[in-house]
Amino acid sequence: TMYFQQGSTDPSAYEKAREKFFRTKDLVSKIGSVSVHCTIDERRLAGYCQACGVLTFSSDTSSLQPSPYSIIHNCLKSAHCQAIVKIFLEDNQSNNLPDQFRQSVLRELFQKAQQGNDAVAEVCFKVCACNTVREIRQGQPISVQFNQLFLKPT
């Protein structure tokens, strides 16, 4: 998990990982996720496959439309983060993005905002608001206090 969070400088590493995850997914579909010799967490495997899909180019023609994950990943890399707000607003209606993913995007934006990037700070505040709206709609307790966004590192 940490490998994907830190990122590799070698794109072929993601290609190799993608190949292995998808091969495992194919085998699981043939033999099942529970056997005498091993147990596969299919949700985690699906998450790794999705992460590899974001980080690698696919020759699959059905993936010509970039996923919200790949758009967000590219926005975070380029520091042009305004599209993230649009995706999060749309996701407040569809509930497709996992809460943990939304929180990790907010954490990454928050770190960039604390480094003094004012444009990212504004996006960070908007993403925080989107996450708060999502939590309220789902009847969850609010996880981030808005005043935390105004704290400067000491």
Number of strands: 0
Unreliable segments of 5+ consecutive residues: 1-5
Taken as a percent bin, the fraction of beta residues is under 5%
- SSE pattern: HHHHHHH
For the biggest sheet, the summary is: none
Oligomer: single chain
Distance between the termini: 30 Å
Helix content: 55-70%
Q: What is the overall silhouette?
A: globular
Descriptive account of the structure:
- It is a single chain.
- This protein is mainly α.
- Helix content is 65%, strand content 0%.
- The chain has helices at 2-6, 11-31, 42-55, 68-78, 82-94, 99-114, 118-137.
- Helix 4 runs antiparallel to helix 5 (82-94) and helix 5 packs parallel to helix 7.
- The radius of gyration is 18 Å and the shape is globular.
- Residues 1-5 have low confidence and may be disordered.
Strand and helix map with partners:
Elements: H1 2-6, H2 11-31, H3 42-55, H4 68-78, H5 82-94, H6 99-114, H7 118-137
Helix pairs in contact: 2-3, 4-5, 5-7, 6-7
Provide a concise account of the structure shown.
By secondary structure, the chain is an all-alpha fold. It has helices at 2-6, 11-31, 42-55, 68-78, 82-94, 99-114, 118-137.
Task: Spell out the key features of this protein.
mainly alpha; 154 residues; 7 helices
